[in-house]
Every structure is written in structure tokens, then in C-alpha cells.
């Protein structure tokens, strides 16, 4: 059978693509082929451990796109034939397409270490059954070691600690959240973990996972052994590109599928979106492994609107790092480039700092302290990055900053920003975190000129 669009993968990228394509090209016949009946909301996976009542509470529904007219098939695509414009499935079916979208996502990286095959050595995949298995395994253990202090490692450790377990997190680099945040924010996150009772070992590398049939501990290169009933490997993800490679599509230098600005691959009429695709940094234009559900959804909108002709002109030439996470109830968020990477990349920067409160007066019951760091290009004054920490309001304020970065706003633009405020829901208009940090940078630049 032939379809106008065949989508391989049913995660955030695949669902977003189908929704956008249906809205842009009404009447097109669209088939989504996904391996699992149920697909998890990626960002919610760590919270299935304790915060959510069950793994099923984190399921992404396909009903909206089915109601809109898409067809869903639970099957696995084993082969793509670009010349015949067909896909072949594990169950023996084949489908012809006009346009094909690959949204196969990513898989956890498993390091080549002795002992990784032992029982109770696990990863955090985006798979319902595997996450159920992880949650079940946690029931009867006391000591858990997590390898990797990135977003997933931090969030998982936080959730497991809520369940009363003894948790140790091991990070090869010299601080937690080392890729996303500058040192001062990493240090604040570590202080919170210490207060929560999570043991943190940075600048530490795992030499071996020890045990007989079942894991008994982790041996570090320093010679120290940490006892463990369960080990979770959280050192990152790799793009799932097997189908693309076999079909002859070009693979980028980071291991993801190469695409142009409209998510078109090296083969005509085939697109790639989400974690399986290679991305480019917003500022440096360097290829990177940016794997976020928000980026996948952005890819999906770009590709979905432009499958048959260019309707949505992409003016943003790179992908903006924009994310938030929770550490012990404190929200850490970042947008754009951090100060360390900015300097390494050759930017001369000016920094603006503010410490304020997200309600006014600060005695409002749910008020939270907010620390904001804005990073500007000193020569142009253009905003290139931001980091924030505080209460839940930070999760939305960082989106405002993301919009400012994408729009090329400068220090002056932010100082002159017009906002609406209310005591119960926002910071004071006099010391609004983003504007106050911009004012700090503005004052420093003026002092430097005088």
C-alpha cells in the first residue's frame, strides 16, 4: 500500500511531525510505524520512579493524531529501500511512500566495562517495559550507584533518594551538570545534593563493575570500591541510525543522521528528526549531539510544514540549547551558550548577575529566591546565554530568555523590556530577574567605557 507520508518512530518527534503535517497538508495519507504500543513522555521518565504513581502515568497518547486522520501501525521497520521508496517491517509488510520521515530516536550508551552484563546493571531507555523493570528492581535494593551526573543521572538520583535509598553518583568530570552549566551553578546543585543525602564523587572514573552473577559494587580507577545492589549507567545516548546507515544516508561527524536546515537528508524525499538527527549549535554552528524533546518537537514542526514544499522558512540556522531540571526541588535552567564554552569558542563576553525573588513582596508564601546569570557578547551587546536557579517560575522565565536569544535581543533591548507583573505570580517590576541581570551587565559596560 502507498502512503503520502510514512513516519518511522512514535516518540515526541514522530508525533509532532504527524500533527504538523496533518495541519499543513490536510487530506494527505499518513502512516506512523512504531515499535511499542505505548510510548513514554521522555522528560517524564525519571519521575516514574517515585513522583508518579506508575510508569503508565507517563504515556504519550496517539489518539489526537489518529482522530485527525493518521494511521498507526505497531511494528518494527527492518529495511528502507530509497530507490523503490518502500519500507519493510518485521511482520513481513511493506509500504510505499512519497515522503519518509525517520524519527528513530536514541539509545543509552553502554560503556565497555567489565561487569556491565551483571544482573541489576541497568540504563534508562525510553522503553515502557525496561522502565517498569528498573522501577521493580529498585523495590528490593538498598544501595544504588549512578554513573553520570548529567540531567538524567541527576534526576534519577533525586527520585531514588526520595524513596529512601542510599544513593551515590559518580561523575568523570570535575563537577555535576558539567556540560549544561557554569561552575558556580554546578556547585549550587552539588550543595543541594549533599543536603539531600546523595553522595557525589566527581573526577572519578569507573574501572569495573564487580560481582558474580549479580552486581555487588563499583570499582573506581582510584582503587576505591563502592558497594551497590544496583548500578544505573547514565553517561549519555547515541543516535539510533541503523536503518539510515543501511539505506545509504549520510551520517554526520557526531554519529547522527546528516540533514539540511529543513531536516532533509542526503537522499531525496527522506527526512530525519529528533535524537537520531545531527544538530548544529545556535551560535558556533558546530555539529553537536543535542538530544532534547523540545528540539525534537522543533525539528518536527520544521519538517512537517515543509514535507512537500517550503511553507515555513527556517530563519534560525542552528538549534538552541534550552532546558531545565530539578535538583532537590530547586529548578536549574539554561539557554544558549554558557560562559565557559563562550570563551572557548572565542566570544568576548560581559556577564550580568541578579539575585531576586519571584514574588512581590518576598513574604508571599510561595516566593522563591532566583539567581540569574546573563551572558552577552561584549562587542555587540547581543544576548547569547543565560543560567537561572530558583523556584518553578524559572522554568518559564528561561523560555522568555530563549525567545530573546532567538530574536537577537541586546542588553539595551532587555533593559527596556516591557513586562506585566502581579504580586501573586511574578517578581517585582523593579527587580525582575531578567531585567535586573541585564542592568548589571549594562552598568559594567558603561563603567568600562567611562
Number of strands: 26
Q: What is the average per-residue confidence, as pLDDT, rounded to a whole number?
A: 95
How far apart are the first and last residues' alpha carbons, in Å?
72 Å
Q: What sort of overall outline do the alpha carbons produce when their principal axes are compared?
A: globular
Low-confidence stretches: none
**Portion in strands:** 25-35%
Number of discrete helical segments: 11
User: Radius of gyration, Cα only, in angstroms?
Assistant: 23 Å
Which structural class do the helices and strands define?
alpha/beta
Percent range of helical residues: 25-40%
Query: What composes the largest sheet?
Result: 7 strands, mixed
Protein described:
By secondary structure, the chain is an alpha/beta fold. The strands form 7 sheets. Strands 1, 2, 5, 6, 7, 8 and 19 form a 7-stranded mixed sheet that branches. It has helices at about 10-25, 65, 130-140, 150-160, 185-195, 240-245, 295-305, 340-345, 395-405, 410-415, 435-450, and strands at about 1-10, 30-35, 40, 60, 70-75, 75-80, 85-90, 95-100, 105-110, 120, 145, 165-170, 200, 205-210, 215-220, 225, 230-235, 235-240, 270, 280, 285-290, 320-325, 330-335, 350-355, 370-375, 385-390. The chain has 11 helices and 26 strands. The protein is about 25% helix and about 30% strand. The model has no long low-confidence stretch (mean pLDDT about 95).
Amino acid at each position: 500500500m502507498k502512503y503520502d507520508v510514512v513516519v518511522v518512530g512514535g516518540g515526541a518527534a514522530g508525533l509532532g511531525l504527524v500533527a504538523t503535517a496533518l495541519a499543513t497538508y490536510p487530506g494527505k495519507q499518513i502512516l506512523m510505524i512504531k515499535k511499542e504500543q505505548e510510548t513514554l513522555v521522555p522528560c517524564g521518565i525519571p519521575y516514574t520512579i517515585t513522583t508518579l504513581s506508575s510508569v503508565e502515568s507517563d504515556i504519550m497518547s496517539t489518539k489526537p493524531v489518529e482522530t485527525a486522520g493518521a494511521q498507526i501501525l505497531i511494528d518494527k521497520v527492518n529495511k528502507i529501500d530509497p530507490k523503490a521508496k518502500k519500507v519493510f517491517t518485521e511482520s513481513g509488510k511493506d509500504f510505499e511512500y512519497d515522503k519518509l520521515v525517520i524519527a528513530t530516536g536514541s539509545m543509552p550508551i553502554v560503556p565497555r566495562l567489565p561487569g556491565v552484563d551483571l544482573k541489576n546493571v541497568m540504563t534508562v531507555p525510553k522503553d515502557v517495559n525496561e522502565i517498569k523493570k528498573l522501577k521493580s528492581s529498585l523495590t528490593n535494593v538498598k544501595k544504588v550507584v549512578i554513573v553520570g551526573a548529567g540531567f538524567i543521572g541527576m534526576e534519577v538520583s533525586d527520585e531514588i533518594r526520595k524513596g529512601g535509598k542510599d544513593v551515590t553518583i559518580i561523575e568523570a568530570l570535575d563537577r555535576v551538570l558539567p556540560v549544561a552549566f557554569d561552575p558556580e551553578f554546578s556547585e549550587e546543585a552539588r550543595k543541594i545534593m549533599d543536603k539531600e543525602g546523595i553522595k557525589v564523587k566527581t573526577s572519578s572514573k569507573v574501572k569495573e563493575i564487580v560481582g558474580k552473577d549479580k552486581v555487588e559494587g563499583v570499582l573506581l580507577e582510584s582503587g576505591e570500591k563502592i558497594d551497590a545492589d544496583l548500578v544505573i549507567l547514565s553517561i549519555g545516548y547515541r543516535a539510533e541510525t541503523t536503518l539510515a546507515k543501511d539505506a545509504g544516508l549520510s551520517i554526520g561527524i557526531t554519529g547522527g543522521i546528516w540533514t539540511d536546515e529543513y531536516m532533509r537528508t542526503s537522499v531525496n524525499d527522506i527526512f530525519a528528526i529528533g535524537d537520531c538527527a545531527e544538530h548544529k549549535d545556535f551560535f558556533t554552528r558546530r555539529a553537536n549531539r543535542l538530544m532534547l524533546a523540545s528540539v525534537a518537537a522543533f525539528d518536527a514542526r520544521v519538517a512537517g510544514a515543509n514535507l512537500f514544499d517550503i511553507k515555513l522558512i527556517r530563519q534560525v540556522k542552528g538549534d538552541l540549547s534550552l532546558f531545565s531540571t530539578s535538583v532537590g526541588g530547586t529548578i536549574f535552567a539554561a539557554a544558549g551558550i554558557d560562559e565557559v564554552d563562550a570563551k572557548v569558542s572565542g566570544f568576548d563576553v560581559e556577564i550580568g548577575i541578579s539575585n531576586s525573588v519571584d514574588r512581590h513582596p518576598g513574604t508571599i508564601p510561595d516566593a522563591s529566591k532566583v539567581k540569574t546569570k546573563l551572558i552577552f557578547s561584549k562587542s555587540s551587546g547581543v544576548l547569547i546565554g543565560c543560567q537561572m536557579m530558583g523556584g518553578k517560575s524559572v522554568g518559564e522565565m528561561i523560555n522568555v530568555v530563549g525567545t530573546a536569544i532567538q530574536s537577537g535581543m541586546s542588553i539595551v533591548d532587555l533593559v527596556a523590556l516591557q513586562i506585566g507583573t502581579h504580586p501573586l505570580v511574578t517578581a517585582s517590576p523593579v527587580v525582575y530577574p531578567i531585567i535586573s541581570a541585564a542592568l548589571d551587565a549594562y552598568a559594567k559596560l558603561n563603567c568600562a567605557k567611562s
